[in-house]
Amino acid sequence: MPPVPLPSLEHVIARYLAGWRESPVELAIFGAAEPAHMASLLEACCLRLLGARVQGALFYQSSIGAVAGVELDDERRVVLKAYQPDRSPERLREIVRLQRWLAQQGWLAPEVLAGPEPLGRGRLVIEQYLSRGAPRDGHEPVIRRAIARSLHALSAALAPLLPESRLEPHLVALLPADRLWPAPHSKLFDFEVTRAGAEEIDGLARLARSHMAPVGQLVLGHSDWRAEHLRFEGEEPVAAFDWDSLCKSREPELVGFIAHAFCADWSRAGHVQAPTLEEARGFVSDYEAARGGAFSAVERRAVGAAFAYSVAYTSRCGHAFGKREREQPGTFHHLLASHGEGLLEL
To answer: Do 180 and 203 touch, CB atoms closer than 8 A?
Structure first.
């Protein structure tokens, strides 16, 4: 039997947007959340940059940016990553440089084919579509260890590029001392108008901020290194995504941040997104084993502060989105409410 034709890009975008009341990301990038207009802009970029027409679409979704998987009329499959106007071209060019270097080393990253290039009000990067591997559950101890081990291996692989990299630090490191929260990563979350009822969350974040200190070595790493963005063959990662999360960070801060959500996979309904405190501690121990030595006492304090703050941030996003999960096991707010200041003792 002949293969079933893929749906059009316009159709796939329309189907996705039908599930949302608002489309702030699409408005910021494309100027209008109109599927035909969006598909036309993306298809024109494929023709201009790759010399091929879009034959059909594999997927579309949006969060901080918008991403679509398409098949071209020359049988290539590529991923189109559209960024909002606040992503500077300098940052995107540096991420592309690092990602290309990793791909050349055969290191989990898809090859960048084009970009960053203008797209509507934002910018576009086109990369190879990777279909290798399968998702795994980060709650499995063997997969948790693989995630921790590969996080360290990534920083080690990028170490030769660290001295000349102009990549900015992780977002929290840039936050002024008088501000509790950065601007939320999505316009779907308004922290100011949802302050009522968030006092417990804000209180832990404030305490965690007071424990933060710039200790440990600087590394290049991936600030969203979690199960959802990794694909495995058996117990080994063979592909990774979301490379626009590359950052320059103090190692303890990066590890604390990743420890809070290494097992998260928001693409899976019903998945337990938050780790237990024991799982998070296990992740840090797994990372220390990979680096060949434990963090010092002052570094471990910084790991705990970053972990507690990150749990609070993700809880705050849920609160701003209208979720009330304090009593729901497996959620970040429940983790925060169950342990409070104990989250700092990671």
So the answer is: no
